[in-house]
Amino acid sequence: MNQKQEEHIDKICDGFTEEAWEKYEKGSKEHGGNLWQKANIIKMIKEEAIDLYIYACTLEKQIQKVKGFNKDKIKE
User: Fold this and answer.
1) How many Cβ atoms from other residues are within 10 Å of residue 6's Cβ?
2) Which domain holds residue 14?
3) CB distance 24 to 16 below 8 Å
4) Could you say which of 32, 37, 41, 72 is the most buried, measured as most Cβ atoms within 10 Å of its Cβ?
5) 76 residues of the chain, pLDDT tens digit each
6) Looking at the structure, do residues 8 and 30 belong to the same domain, yes or no?
């Protein structure tokens, strides 16, 4: 990898670590107990996967809307 690629992945990994820590803490407070002792992890994964799909579809539509944005159509 070159320097810019290393910097890019470092930023991604740092951000992931920070956000994962925050998400874990929030989930722990919301749901209580120890994750490794929960019996419904498969159900939780499926729910998260469904959410992810919905978010991806929504973002795709938002991107398409922005790509179709025509600043000339805006009246001041």
Assistant:
1) 10
2) 1-37
3) no
4) 41
5) 999 999 999 999 999 999 999 999 999 999 999 999 999 999 999 999 999 999 999 999 999 888 887 767 666 5
6) yes
